[in-house]
Amino acid sequence: MSPSPSFDSLQPRQFADALHALRERAPLVQCLTNIVVANFTANALLAAGCAPAMVDNAREAEGFAAISAGVLVNLGTPYEETAQAMRAAVRGAEGAGVPWVLDPVAAGAVPWRTSIALELLGAHHPAVVRGNGSEILALAGGQGGKGVESTAAADQAVDAAVMLARTHACVVAVSGAVDQITDGQRLVRIANGHPLLTRVTGAGCALGALMAAFAGVTGDALLAAAAATALLTVAADGAAQSSHGPGSFAVALLDELHALTPEALAARLKLA
Amino acid sequence: MSPSPSFDSLQPRQFADALHALRERAPLVQCLTNIVVANFTANALLAAGCAPAMVDNAREAEGFAAISAGVLVNLGTPYEETAQAMRAAVRGAEGAGVPWVLDPVAAGAVPWRTSIALELLGAHHPAVVRGNGSEILALAGGQGGKGVESTAAADQAVDAAVMLARTHACVVAVSGAVDQITDGQRLVRIANGHPLLTRVTGAGCALGALMAAFAGVTGDALLAAAAATALLTVAADGAAQSSHGPGSFAVALLDELHALTPEALAARLKLA
Amino acid sequence: MSPSPSFDSLQPRQFADALHALRERAPLVQCLTNIVVANFTANALLAAGCAPAMVDNAREAEGFAAISAGVLVNLGTPYEETAQAMRAAVRGAEGAGVPWVLDPVAAGAVPWRTSIALELLGAHHPAVVRGNGSEILALAGGQGGKGVESTAAADQAVDAAVMLARTHACVVAVSGAVDQITDGQRLVRIANGHPLLTRVTGAGCALGALMAAFAGVTGDALLAAAAATALLTVAADGAAQSSHGPGSFAVALLDELHALTPEALAARLKLA
């Protein structure tokens, strides 16, 4: 079922154009995310040139989603009130034609959030679902891993990703040593990035937020997910060179997200 | 209506004395703030020499406010329970004569928090209201901007700030390229700071917390708001020189908040 | 009542072995902690080689505790829902024989969380209770300090710690210039660390999380608490040498937690 990698499905120039559009339009990105990564997510969006807004209460989420360029729903630390806010935000986004991204953190490993992810996925249409291999396998009906770290290699999850993408008519992005992004027909593989990304909490969560940002400035959700992945992982390549461990890496990553030009992004991109 | 800038309303020596008092007394500052910036706010207070305490539940907020030196109420991510805690904290603060600061994040852009801000402002007396131009305009009856970033220049908001200050007998501080702080009669303009402050989430929120801290060690709310603004923006001047982007800037900002002496603060202050 | 320091109760080699086990087994640590330090805590665990998971809602906490290697319950910002989740996590941990750590942030200074700490301590059996001198004194029946900073010297709290350890058959760790850890019979004193640890929010909270991690890989709770203290404070010694203030210190601390080898830990450890 898995498509062959489409090496030419997206061209480096498209990544550069997407980043250029991001910087020009500074999209307003509503994030309903978790208490662990809210700060890093907002800083990653700001560094990349976006306008983050963490509006995650049930009274404001729906209305704010409708005026946002993109919306992130991340299930890292759901509570009763924020779960309601997530449902409201998805309603608001879909009603206004605003793309939203689902990040089903620890789906498969913990039951309640898994049910929320499946509920949102069953009744609504995210532009992108982003997770590690375990999470994507869990949403596709397989078994999840322990907690938030993927125990299934991203490669093994690609079949599940393609199935999920076709079933829900969305893009599915699987993080791993090689990131894989599919809309069910096309498959983009990106080989940038560094192991230190797994030693900083919220790198994946920030990636989901960047996908929502790019989805707000391009009509192609596959390009949005791929451009966000490229931006974060090419920035990580640079950050790894100037850092001494996970602390300084996270700081350098924000600096790189801010400094990276569209041209440098296209030049350093490693499509696999 | 707008007063002429009073270049001599506050003297650099007063800023130095206020910082000296802050370091001597290490005020206990209760922060009811948002999940995005709670960490950076606490670190900014610690770096500056204060004792932060994020007591933001409805059962403890009132009693703790009464034993604090200053209280911050920041509306970045309100929830049902924390909104109740904010009301309780304001009651506790006012009952004990403890100054409190209102930071109406995204007021005007989102309805519920705007109503909370107006409710607190209508029934109680903050020592300081701190916001960007859009937020201050919204509280004064104008239109807010998109999300948390000011779309109205600080200069345009100064009339609204003066009106708000006179109506509520409080100090109003408007962040911008030039920060403007008024008690309705006097106007202090501070020209320190750096554009990277707008690329780090929580710089403004930390400023509100520092205002609560200074209000706890000086009886003059105008001086408190101005000294906090001076401390943060002079520190930002230094941080910008030793950093490479928003990540390293945020780190250097904390280092500078810790290192800045009262004498250096007075010497580098740019009253405009 | 206070035992004499047992200089030879734990040997440096045991600290090295514990860190080696931590790196080998990468324990899954469930953290129910506060909004201020959740990010730093997760990053400290990741840097040290653990797998953090912040599962702190009432629906998932019990089940997740049962599959974790260790559980942290930190009372920094309790809410109605997270307090329920804490009770559930403790049930889940005890039912599955998983060690859990209690960090009674600001116990004695604020009533509700004090009552939660006493409730958990009265009905259940933490492997470790970790706090500053004021908090430990408060749990033992004395008076707490102002907010989260200890006003009672760690030395003065050691009698209270021994009593608490004997009463509840647990290990009690008191943070201070010299950290003191007792199981009611043995007393370990560790003299590493740096004053900048008190200028970074969440250093103590991260220490509690590291204790839960070590408790998950060693059957000796005294060794777990002592090894976590050694890891954090020896890392702090290194971080202080390469930093310029609290901002860069916190970054370097994460780098050091990642880089520190078992051999270096044993070599730099200062048992007092």
Helix content of chain A: 40-55%
CATH architecture heading of chain A: 3-Layer(aba) Sandwich
Q: From the helix content, strand content and strand pairing of chain A, which structural class follows?
A: alpha/beta
C-alpha end-to-end distance of chain A: 19 Å
Major interchain interface with per-chain residue totals: A-B, 32 and 34 residues
* Order of SSEs of chain A: HEHEHEHEHEHHEEEHHHH
Number of domains of chain A: 1
Oligomerization state of this entry? homotrimer
Radius of gyration of chain A: 16 Å
Mean pLDDT of chain A: 93
Q: Main beta sheet of chain A: strand number and arrangement?
A: 8 strands, mixed
CA-based shape of chain A: globular
CATH class of chain A: Alpha Beta
What strand line-up does the widest sheet of chain A have? 2-1-3-4-5-6-7-8
Give a description of the structure.
Chains A, B, C: Its cofactor is Mg(2+). Chains A, B, C: It comes from Comamonas flocculans. 3 copies of one chain form a homotrimer. The first copy, chain A, has 11 helices and 8 strands. With 272 residues, chain A is α/β, with parallel strands linked by helices. In chain A, α4 links the parallel β3 (70-74) and β4 (100-103). In chain A, α1 (12-25) crosses α9, α3 (61-67) packs parallel to α4 and α8 (203-215) packs across α9 (221-241). The radius of gyration of chain A is 16 Å and the shape is globular. The model of chain A is unreliable at 144-149 (pLDDT under 50). Chain A binds chain B through residues 28, 35, 38-39, 42-43, 46-47, 51-57, 59-60, 63-64, 67, 81-82, 250-259, and chain B through 34-37, 39-40, 76-80, 106, 109-113, 146-149, 198-202, 243-248, 250-251.
